[in-house]
Write a structure and sequence with these properties.
- This protein has 146 residues and is mainly α.
- It has one domain.
- It is 54% helix and 7% strand.
- The strands form 2 sheets. The protein has a two-stranded antiparallel ribbon with strand order 1-4.
- Helix 3 crosses helix 7.
- The longest helix has 20 residues.
- The N terminus is likely disordered.
């Protein structure tokens, strides 16, 4: 009998230090799992070497980015995810989330990167490209097929 390859990982899909360091919204305290669903989507996008738009990401949890409350929730979740990633010594995962028109991360991403000491503010394009490469490389390394 021939079995398909099984997926193994050098790290757990959801690392405890990541979960422990996230600040969750009122929505997640109610148990909707928005943070984990968004984080899972970001990891999938990063492993595929792609980006995702803010609108497409919000749709993962049934939110509309035209709603200011939803936009604030998404921004807060992305900030929490990247802060946790930074604390764990990993690149800023939210770099894979881009504007549909610009194709790059929004202003909040660059402000957070500066606040975390990851970026000096000199060249947004260069930093975006570098961090995107780092995220793609990190998350591609994680999954091994045997």
């Amino acid at each position: 009998m021939h079995l398909p390859p099984t997926r193994t990982s050098s790290r757990p899909e959801f690392e405890p230090c990541f979960a422990d360091s996230l600040t969750v919204s009122a929505d997640d305290r109610a148990g909707s799992g928005s943070v984990e669903r968004i984080a899972a989507r970001l990891r999938t996008v990063a492993r595929a070497g792609r980006t995702v738009t803010y609108n497409d990401l919000a749709a993962v949890v049934g939110w509309d980015m035209d709603d200011p409350t939803a936009a604030r929730e998404v921004a807060g979740i992305l900030r929490a995810i990247s802060t946790a990633e930074h604390a764990a010594g990993r690149p800023l995962l939210s770099v894979v989330v881009v504007g549909a028109k610009t194709g790059r991360a929004g202003k909040g991403f660059f402000k957070l990167a500066q606040r975390l000491g990851r970026y000096d503010g000199a060249d947004d394009e260069a930093f975006f490209a570098q961090e995107l490469r780092r995220v793609h490389a990190h998350w591609r390394r994680e999954t091994v097929w045997t």
